[in-house]
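The instructor's notes for this session suggest beginning with a concrete chain rather than abstract definitions. Hand out the sequence below and ask the class to guess, before any prediction is shown, which regions might be ordered.
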Amino acid sequence: MRLIREEIETNYQLTIKEALEEIDILKGNGDKKIVYAHHKFVEPMLDYIVQDLRKLALQRMTTLLAQWWVV
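After discussion, reveal the predicted structure:
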């Protein structure tokens, strides 16, 4: 999964690590497909993705507005 390899914010890293520990992936007791579909993993990852997209959208809007004001 690409998102797992990307650098993510520390608070989300901790949340995801805790979720993985809870579903035993760090102990090697699970199929990765099942683990990555588990709600304890999916929910914090989805929160991260949504927040990241919001930040990106805000940055782009700010850039566009700044360019518009310059013209």
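Then share the key points. The mean pLDDT is 78. The helical segments are 2-5, 10-22, 32-37, 39-70.
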